[in-house]
Description:
The protein has 172 residues and is α+β, with helices and mostly antiparallel strands.
Amino acid sequence: MPLAGQVGQTRTMRIYLPATAAHLRAAALGSSQEPLVAHAATPALGRALPEEDEEGLEVSASLCAADASLVLLAEPGAEGLADRRIVIAADVDAEYVRELAVEGDVLPGTVEVTGEIPWEDVAALLVDEAAAETDVRAARLGDEDAFERAAEADLLWFDVTERDALAETLGG
Length: 172
């Protein structure tokens, strides 16, 4: 096994992927044909939030992914999916992550991830508690106040081994 800094060692990066209950049933996440948009503690996010340490930047990236999960729930074809925001935290090879330029609707910390993310690279699942469903449902339908309330709700942490049980519970 190579030592830190030796040639051949891959560097991983924690990404926060916005998801819905349907993603929990996927054999793997992403593909080599279409990059996934995710969030991460990038240099641009660090410049935007200079008072935050690494942990604070990670929390900020996960919250951006939670907001993006709600946006996914509002898209056509998402009807019938559970009214819960889901964020998938994964450690991916940094060479497959590209930071997007901050412009228009692109927030600092937004990245594209190319390739497939196997479930064994997933570190955790972050999911709204049941009490958030009312606000998430209203936010899906365009209620800005509900969006703000949903954004304030904490996400619960689940181990990736709980993925099948979550998918069953959430009907994904």
